[in-house]
# Entry
Amino acid sequence: MARTLTGTMQAIAVTPKQPGSAKQIELAMPQASAGPALIRVLEVGIDGTDTEINNGEYGEPPPGSPVLVIGHEALGVVEAIGSGVQGFAPGDLVVSTVRRPDECPNCQAGESDMCLFGNYTERGIKGAHGYMGQYYSERPAFMVKIPPALRPFAVLLEPLSIVEKATVQAWKIQERMVWQPKRAVVLGAGSIGILATILLRLRGLEVHVYAKTPKDSLQADVIAQLGASYDSVDDHPIIGIEAELGQIDYMLEATGSSTVAFEAMAQVGVNGVICLTGVSGGNSRIEIPSDVINLDMVLGNRVAFGSVNANRRYFELGVQHFQQAEQRWPGIFERLITRRVPFADFKSALDRRPEDIKTLLTIADE
# Structure
């Protein structure tokens, strides 16, 4: 049922394009009206996008607002439902998706992550307030119900959805041939890289992870628990991993480095596929063996593609894989949550540390 909460709420917002502008502000309390539900935010995951927006690199406020409430990885609980809302009730745990569609054919077909026109909005990123506040309102079409057993780590669902999409799309692309992948390489050992490793191990692949993190780090230990191998790129440069490992059937790049992305393209094996998920800003220029890459891509039937954002079906798939992976490796997802920071200490949460895998900003108790 609808419930009216009057007054204001606290949120963390930035003035886009102004470095270090994150601050706590007061906003009018959202409502559960005809259509939306009112969500009370429990915790928000911090990722590189939040840090980069606070660094002034990008970000776009909602129309008419000078500020943007950041945060796009959130776990919340339904506080109240508006009239006509079906499938949800007060007390339900939910994670909401990020992107909202424009009028392009893909968006209208439920694939806003494949938007043609680019006029979409993204909560906490582009043209719409995010989730780093005490409450938000949302339509059921963008809400994913979370089983209570997943509560300790369900905030990881948004980053998991990113690698769900990357993996599904890679396998879909490879339906072009008889493809029996055995070996995968993941570049990067942050939350995206480790979540990708989990999905690939669930598929039964031999997985090798490369990153700059030391061999005695928590990341390396988590990767070992999954039955994958970890090596530092300081000792094992990207440009030599094909010679070191042999045939590489699938690669996922999650570093955000354009240099790594192009070096990796030259390492994927015959009939292999590489997915780029890292977003690199700036205007860096590098020298690449373009003739070699071109020759190998053509003669070896190799594919390179990019993947960003994820629509609802990948969030739902993530819920299934949460359950499967937790059964196989109990406690694995909670190991990825390395810091929980109180709401008032948001600046510390936005300050990413080398040992962080996933930092959570605690907004409210249960």
Notes: The chain is about 25% helix and 25% strand. The domain at 8-153+336-362 is CATH 3.90.180.10 (Quinone Oxidoreductase; Chain A, domain 1).
